[in-house]
Amino acid sequence: QRKAQLAENEFVEGLMAHGFEEATPQGYTGDELARLIFHGFQSKTEDGRSMGHVILASFASLEDNPFKRRLIFNPDCPIVAKSKKKRAERVQRRKNEYVQLHIARDEFLAYLVARFGNPVRAWRRALDPRSTMSVSRQRFCQVARQIGYQGNLKLLWKGLDRDDTDDATLEEIDFRRGQALARFRQWCIGVKASSCSRPSADADGGSQDACQFVFFEMDPGRRGKVKLPEFTQFCRPRGCHLDLSVIFHSLDASAAGFITKHDMAFLDNWEPPGWLYAEENPEAVEELKKIMMTEYGSFTQCWRRLLDADGSNRVNWDEYCHACRALPFEGDKEGAWRTLDDDCSGFITLREIDPISDHILLEFREWIFDNFGDIKGAFKVIDANRNNEVSLSEFRRALRRFMFQPRPFGSTEVSADPPWKLPRISDEDTVLLFNALRPPSVRFIAMSDLAFLERWEEPPPKAETRLRAGSGKVVERVVPPPPRNVCTKSPVEYQQFVQATEGPLPPLRRTASQEEAEPSSESRFTPVQSP
């Protein structure tokens, strides 16, 4: 009833209702022991007379955790309340942000489809007309406003630049089409290599004009343009099993119903990252893990000292390549990346490398903030002898004394059992956690070794925030209504908005009529640069 004090009968009845009878030692009944406890802890006046009730502060001496003991004496303690409030706000803000980022991204893609037909066409005509295959944040925001997009650009950019490189690429705008184009480019290189008299000489040096070479093979009459039926009839018999319709319309930047050599030159000038067209290779991941264990002794040490040097729990492609060179790993790093980054998010976390260690570290992090408020408060309690160093024995005693009870691996539910009924952390998990925190060749933990947990973020569940790689299918997820600062027009409404306000976009430098008027007297293959 939240009366802040309990009489004797209320105290005894409350203990019995919560299973106190089960914890009673032999020789006593639950009622007798409960009344003994009440008389031992009941409040007294200044002259020593009993007041006939107990309050919460009477039991503060039973609480070992100083953080919780402070809450008992002062539930509205400013420091404690502020710490808990900040953490709750941070967690809720992070959850809302994950949803808002993907809503903003979906809204922007819908706008590009309504205005240009597909995102690749928007990339070539508006975002990256010079075919640099990379767009800075300033350029992106400027073009987005020019084409009439009215959404939250800060939120949108954060959703697109998922690898934190401060540049947006084609595969970040539209992964499915970017992957299809990258694999088609590799197929063109293979076709040219097999058609040349010296494939070994052209396999590397001739890759720059392989797509234009394939175009001239498609166009034996030298008309200067290839339509979808001709495109399909040439590619399919030669072993190209990609989605040719998606590739063709992505290359058709002018939406004229045909492609030209300039459209194919766009692919020749592009050097996509190797992982974009690579296939998954689980054997390469096992080989990489063996090298990590050999060099560092554990996955977590390799992750913290080499891969995730900034302590963000996110490693992008560039950081991964640097780590592969430092190990060294000379296997199929592209295939290993595709296996690890199975959701094609643009980054990997410790969960993909060592899910068990990732689970126990995140559980330890949550336990610290729930019981001590912050890293500094937790370390002061764990460091019993105050020498600023925590050995394995001190660490083990602290975890058991303050009841660190991580959930089983793979479980997301919080147990309703009281803490004394939950299983304690095992010695094996204690050693695993201690070794994940301590520096290499050091037998103790300092407070600086726990600092990375402050900025560590738990990766979002893949079922909530990701598209399945290569399938184009959205995984089922519960999405709240979009925020007010994100556009909510449907593609049809966008199309009407564009026609009413902006009108059609200016044509490319070479229009469809110019292509038709161009003389078709070319008799040999002449590579060109993309406009």
Task: Tell me about this structure.
This protein has 531 residues and is mainly alpha-helical. The protein has 28 helices and 8 strands. The protein has a two-stranded antiparallel sheet with strand order 1-2. It has a two-stranded antiparallel ribbon with strand order 3-4. A two-stranded antiparallel sheet has the order 5-6. Helix 9 crosses helix 11 and helix 21 crosses helix 24. The longest helix has 39 residues. The C terminus is likely disordered.
Spatial order of the strands in the main sheet? 1-2
Straight-line distance between termini = 76 Å
Number of helices: 28
Strand content: under 5%
Instruction: State the secondary-structure class.
Output: mainly alpha
Compose a concise summary of this entry.
The protein is mostly helical. Helices cover 53% and strands 3% of the residues.
SSE blueprint and pairings:
Elements (H helix, E strand, L loop, with lengths): L5 E2 H10 L12 H12 L11 E2 L11 H8 L4 H39 L2 H9 L7 E2 H10 L6 H8 L6 E2 L1 H4 L1 H21 L3 H7 L4 H9 L7 E2 H8 L8 H8 L6 E2 L1 H8 L5 H4 L4 H15 L2 H9 L7 E2 H10 L6 H8 L6 E2 L1 H4 L1 H17 L3 H8 L9 H10 L25 H11 L14 H4 L6 H4 L25 H11 L10 H6 L14
Antiparallel strand pairs: 1-2, 3-4, 5-6, 7-8
